[in-house]
Design a protein that fits this description.
310 residues, 5-stranded mixed beta sheet, alpha+beta, 25% helix
Length: 310
């Protein structure tokens, strides 16, 4: 048990001021307190409109004093913030806050802050040097907001799917599904864990027990990096569909990714990459490569990577 007097935080490293004078935050609980979230008492002075955008943290704020105007940057909606009003930034919402009177908020962050974060000019936290693996930020989302990707080169036979269903029923979900969040469609796209997702979707007893909620972690990656992540997860388990994986290689090449990038990010040898290109049979995969007029076999060690910037 801990009992913390916020007055004791004043003047310590847990009292943090926004560089532009936008607020003073007393960080009551941090990651090191092992509570799984951060709690702060934040005072926002009358100092014009402030812009904040917490890209990697979800925040809830309970107003205990003062009066302010909260504006959703995307929709333009305005909300009056006063005592006993709570606002929740559940989609990492970029927003403006203007204190009409000095505002005092009790704020909760998930994942927790380390205490070293400072604000960038774009209103977000600079988390350089404080990388956290996604597994430390598992969240529960409705199964209706999760969708499969169209490039997963992994397949599971029916007996193994039944075993997976039994395992999840007996032991619960022990691994989150890896996803990326599509803001335009407001859905989570599966990167890895498709069959765990499918089990919750199709198993009535598990869906009922879990209240239709799926544990996920969210990666911040572009489409080519998502594909590479999916293949890395599958190959690490020793299971992947060669035909589908060769199709992914074709798509990566069409996106402009060269041999070096593909091999390094997916974990392939030069020889394996060549075989996948041959399986696909797409002539465009061999553009910008010189071949002799004879039918001499090309030795894997003699392959030359495309020159490109990683």
């Amino acid at each position: 048990m801990k009992v913390i007097n916020v007055a004791d935080i004043v003047g310590t490293e847990r009292e943090v001021s926004c560089p532009n004078g936008g607020f003073v935050s007393n960080r009551v609980l941090l990651e090191s307190d092992n509570m799984g979230y951060t709690m702060t008492k934040t005072v926002i002075p009358v100092n014009g409109k402030q812009f904040w955008h917490y890209k990697k943290h979800l925040e809830s704020c309970y107003c205990i004093a003062g009066k302010g105007i909260l504006t959703n940057k995307i929709t333009g909606e305005e909300f009056e913030i006063k005592p006993d009003v709570v606002y929740v930034l559940d989609n990492n919402d970029p927003h403006y806050f203007e204190a009409i009177e000095e505002v005092v908020l009790i704020c909760v962050f998930n994942p927790p802050l380390t205490g070293k974060e400072v604000h960038n000019e774009d209103g977000s936290y600079d988390d350089s040097g404080s990388f956290k693996s996604p597994v430390y930020a598992v969240k529960s989302v409705p199964i209706s907001k999760v969708t499969a990707n169209d490039y997963n080169p992994n397949s599971v036979a029916p007996p193994e799917m039944q075993l997976l269903e039994t395992s999840i029923w007996e032991d619960g979900y022990t691994q989150p599904v890896v996803t990326v969040y599509d803001k335009e469609k407001d859905v989570y796209v599966v990167v890895d864990g498709f069959h765990r997702f499918l089990t919750l979707k199709n198993s009535k007893r598990i869906n009922n027990r879990e209240n239709g909620m799926l544990p996920v972690v969210v990666l911040d990656k572009e489409i080519s990096d998502r594909m590479a992540s999916t293949i890395r997860h599958n190959r690490a388990r020793g299971s992947h569909n060669i035909e589908l994986m060769s199709t992914i290689v074709a798509e990566l090449v069409e996106m402009g990714k060269g041999d070096r990038w593909i091999c390094e990010h997916i974990g392939m040898s030069q020889d394996e990459l060549l075989r996948l290109k041959q399986i696909t049979g797409v002539a465009a995969l061999f553009l910008n490569r010189d071949f002799s007029a004879s039918w001499d076999a090309e030795v894997a060690d003699d392959l030359v990577f495309d020159e490109e910037t990683k």
